[in-house]
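Batch manifest, entry 17 of 40.
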Amino acid sequence: MRCILILWTLLASVAWSQELTISHLPYIGRMLLAGKNEMYVSLKDLAQTMDMKVVKCKHGFWSGYQPPDQLPDLEFNQVKVGDTVIPSVMLSETREYFVSAEGFCRGVGANVTRS
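Output type: structure tokens
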């Protein structure tokens, strides 16, 4: 797992200056480009943009508008948004979690576009 974090640190050490729009809301926050087309964004910043909550649950995170009575039991670095579980990546320098913008938005039924 440590090897994956180091790899992500090397691949995503520079935030790309692109604009994201999430269901007509401009996203303002940290973004990373992984590979050619995969845009990763700060979980905290994305949830804040969408007026959602992020709750730590065991090894992962739950994100949504209203926390459930019982939080899900998630594996290390997983995020549950809607009915979807997506992976997250922690950058070692900042200890901040990033998620796929498309994966997260799909989980809540939102659209994401970038320019």
